[in-house]
Amino acid sequence: MTDIAPNHSIQQQPGDRPDLLIFEIVAKITEADIEWMAARVQTAFDTVETIDMLIIMRHFEGAELGAIFDAEAMKAQMRSLRHVRRYGVVGAPFWAKAMINLFSPLTPVEEKTFSLEEEAQARIWISAPHPVSP
């Protein structure tokens, strides 16, 4: 079942395991919607030690200023450095893809970008098993 943000710019898609979050961006992101998403991510961080996250930007139309600088979203982003194993983005605009690729080597998170045409590969990549830590 799909879970939809208050203003409907973000939809949570079902994942095939509890430590996988999949969100689809379908319109301009509002502050209420980014807070809704941040709450779901924070809940996942409180429930399991680490997660994988896939963002699909099929109809991304930008973001409200309040969404970009939202405190709850920033808290989730800070925690993600300790709680996210893999982070994939499908259909990211050029500037977002460039930022992800630039900063990826500097974080402990395995990050990868995909074109919209590569969504199937992104889903396979995000769902791949992780090596068991000793």
In angstroms, what separates the terminal alpha carbons? 35 Å
Q: What is the overall pLDDT average?
A: 86
* Strand segment count: 6
Could you give a short account of the major beta sheet? 6 strands, mixed
Overall tally of domains: 1
Taking all Cα atoms into account, the compactness measure Rg is 14 Å
Structural class: alpha/beta
Going by CATH, what is the homologous superfamily?
STAS domain
| CATH architectural designation | 2-Layer Sandwich
What is the helix content?
Answer: 25-40%
Element-level helix/strand string: EEEHEHHEHEH
CATH topology (fold) name? Transcription Regulator spoIIAA
Description:
With 134 residues, the protein is α/β, with parallel strands linked by helices. The chain has one domain (3-127): STAS domain (Transcription Regulator spoIIAA, 2-Layer Sandwich), CATH 3.30.750.24. Helix content is 40%, strand content 22%. It contains five helices and six strands; from the N terminus they run βββαβααβαβα. Strands 1-2-3-4-5-6 form a six-stranded mixed beta sheet, sandwiched between helices. Strand 2 (10-13) and strand 3 form a beta hairpin. It is globular. The model has no long low-confidence stretch (mean pLDDT 86).
